[in-house]
What does this fold into?
Amino acid sequence: MLFKNQHRTDMTVVPLGDGIYRLTEYDLANAFVVVGDDRACLIDCCAGVCELDAVVRLITDKPVEVLVTHAHADHIGGASWFPTARLH
It folds into this structure.
């Protein structure tokens, strides 16, 4: 699946297994979505150029918990698209 947003940037979404997806922004940064029974988890947030919240909403309409593994720009930049994020 290829998502093109209003900023003319690309994010690819690749299903990896049952309810698990890899999101790749500009072929440079990755994030992962894991969809559970009641909610979903977004692990890392890419750089934030693409509208990450809109891409996640294409995958699931469940509430999303955002977890960031570390504070490098290519992992935390997209956290601004969400109301809260937790950082290790």
Observations:
- DSSP finds two helices and seven strands in the chain.
- Residues 15 and 21 are 4 Å apart (CA to CA).
